[in-house]
């Protein structure tokens, strides 16, 4: 018996079958790619942490160059000596601290009684101990995030910033070396008081030579993104200050 392909019922049945088939194939692809996606996310986070502490493949004053993915795991194990999870007044070693999702922890922390988990990475480079902290905030259009490396006195030794959707040539410049390098040497504490670092317009220090003013030069035309970076540093790094007070006593 011939099938009447002109009927609406045939079209609907055919469409449903195609949706099911395509959906099944996509689910299969997604499931098969999941381990690769997770591995790439892990490598990217490790690259970012290492970059913040000055372990990278940068040459001269060129573009940002991360440690290659085929070397990043070994480099991470070499330079990162300890991983901690800070919960309130306590801290504990956890070799999987880099897997903590800072975004999800921020959301959970809004619930009464939840103790936020803060990952902290302790590394060593050129004989110097460094402490690397993740930060996350809001730019003009979407999320911004990064890592900040400091020494025991909470003087910045390096940063890495990234974004989801800031404007190219404006706010997106937060991930360029000329901006990130300005943070190196900046102080976060005034005595024992946490000050943060403000991305400021007209701070009269265009070459960023003054390192105790708690400011870096703003990006032209990116005021809101800059304010987001300032707020991100002020809010997230402040949560680590109690830990630094314990190691400096």
Short description, anyone?
This protein is 36% helix and 23% strand. The protein contains six helices and ten strands.
The largest pleated sheet is described as: 6 strands, antiparallel
The run of helices and strands is HHEEHEEEEHEEEEHH
Which percent range fits the helix content? 25-40%
Report mean pLDDT, rounded to a whole number: 89
CA radius of gyration? 23 Å
- Main-sheet strand order equals 2-1-3-4-5-6
Provide an overview of this structure:
The structure is a single chain. The chain has 249 residues and is an alpha+beta fold. It is built from 6 helices and 10 strands, in the order ααββαββββαββββαα. It has a 6-stranded antiparallel β-sheet. Strands 7-8 form a two-stranded antiparallel sheet. α1 packs across α2. The N and C termini lie far apart (89 Å).
Walk me through the topology:
Blueprint: H1 8-52, H2 69-79, E1 80-87, E2 90-93, H3 102-108, E3 118-125, E4 128-138, E5 143-150, E6 156-163, H4 177-180, E7 189-190, E8 193-194, E9 198-200, E10 215-217, H5 223-238, H6 241-247
Parallel strand pairs: 9-10
Antiparallel strand pairs: 1-2, 1-3, 3-4, 4-5, 5-6, 7-8
């Amino acid at each position: 018996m011939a099938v009447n392909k002109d009927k609406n019922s045939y079209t609907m049945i055919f469409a449903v079958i195609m949706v099911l088939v395509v959906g099944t194939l996509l689910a299969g692809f997604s499931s098969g790619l999941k381990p690769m996606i997770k591995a790439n996310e892990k490598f990217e986070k490790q690259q970012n942490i290492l970059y913040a502490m000055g372990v990278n493949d940068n040459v001269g004053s060129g573009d940002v160059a991360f440690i290659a993915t085929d070397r990043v795991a070994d480099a991470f194990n070499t330079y990162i000596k300890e991983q901690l999870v800070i919960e309130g007044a306590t801290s504990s070693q956890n070799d999987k601290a880099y897997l903590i999702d800072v975004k999800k922890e921020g959301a959970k922390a809004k619930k009464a009684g939840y103790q936020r988990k803060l990952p902290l990475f302790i590394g060593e480079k050129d004989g110097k101990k460094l402490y690397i902290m993740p930060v996350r905030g809001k730019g003009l259009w979407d999320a911004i995030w990064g890592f900040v490396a400091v020494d025991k006195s909470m003087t910045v030794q390096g940063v890495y910033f990234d974004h989801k959707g800031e404007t190219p040539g404006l706010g997106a410049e937060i991930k360029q070396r000329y901006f990130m390098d300005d943070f190196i040497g900046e102080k976060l504490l005034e005595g024992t008081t946490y000050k943060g670092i403000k991305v400021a317009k007209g701070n009269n220090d265009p070459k960023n030579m003054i390192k105790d003013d708690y400011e870096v030069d703003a990006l032209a035309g990116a005021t809101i993104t800059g304010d987001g970076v300032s707020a991100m540093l002020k809010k997230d790094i402040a949560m680590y200050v109690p830990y630094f007070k314990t190691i400096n006593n």
